[in-house]
Amino acid sequence: MKKSRLLSGLLIVVLMVFSFGGAAFAHEHLADTVVDIAVDTEGEFDTLVAALTEAGLVETLQGEGPFTVFAPTDEAFANLLAALEIEAEDLLAHPQLEEVLLYHVVSGKVMSEDLETGDVETLLGENVAIDASTFMVNDAEILVDDGLFDLEAENGVVHVIDTVLVPDVFELDYSENGEEELQSIVEIAQANDDFSILVEALVAADLVDALEDDGPFTVFAPTNDAFAALLEALDIEKDDLLEHPDLADVLLYHVVEGAVFSTDLEEGMEPETLQGETVMISLEDGVFVNDSEVIDADIEASNGVIHAIDEVLVPEAFGAEEEEVPQTGDIGMIPFVVAGAAGLSGLWIVKKRK
């Protein structure tokens, strides 16, 4: 009996020695970096490692840190690729790949027991939402049940997640070569039925080639309704407007050099148009260009941006010798003329506030 107790005691001591010894060994032999954890975990993070390499972030995450990395598995990436109907090569070639990866990294070493519910800023600058009670990061689950959390490295810690985190800045639309291809201002107008009269006007004024140039341009583009209201007010037909000798000047009055998004606008701004006259920006009770309201802002193009407006803008010089054509001083008619010109040029559209 005594011998049995002695053997049991010795066994407990041995187990304790191995337990503490193993813990000490593990502590002294942490992975060098968070990148090494991904590299050394064979078959689990191949896509992540390839993405870090392609984005040039390996050296960054081998720095002193410390970093907390929410690491998507290969299965998580496979699910994303299937949802987007693209290949891995398309994702690796995406111009915003680096932003996506930085959205998975938080500054500091945050172990699972230190997680707190709330928003945490990532290295991208956008926040992720942590739910400490369920171990969720946005809609991704930390694989706690699989033991894939608190994977320590000398410069941080890795928590494995089952879903790729996608930041708001990331565009999920892909072309055949994996990059989003923006259309030109003219192409956008041609593809939108609401700008068909504007397109006709651009063709009639021989401005299509000009607006397909590199730019960039900002276009305040009048819709068909804006043109219809102008034609009714002037009691003329569309053909009369398209044949007007000053049509090009009206259209150019809707275009400003540079890509000016709604967030760049300021109260009282008076940007000069390509026609030579200025327009007045007002931000009271909406976004207005002269008396025309921006109804659809920040339509991004490859050579600028379009802001759809509800009235045609009319420069002071337009129809100066034509009694039937209202000038800028005529408040009631200016909005309609300006809107039409803006739509045709499609060069200065204000981005809607979010």
From TrEMBL:
Pfam families assigned: Fasciclin (PF02469)
Domain of life: Bacteria
Family annotation (Gene3D superfamilies): FAS1 domain (2.30.180.10)
Official protein name in the record: LPXTG cell wall anchor domain-containing protein
Entry's transmembrane regions: 331-350
Annotated source species: Isachenkonia alkalipeptolytica
Keywords of the record: Membrane, Signal, Transmembrane, Transmembrane helix
Key word Signal present: yes
Signal peptide: 1-26
Keyword Phosphoprotein: no
A GO cellular component entry from the record: extracellular space
FAS1 domain mapped to chain residues: 32-165, 182-313
InterPro entries tied to this protein: Adhesion/Biosynth-related, FAS1_dom_sf, FAS1_domain
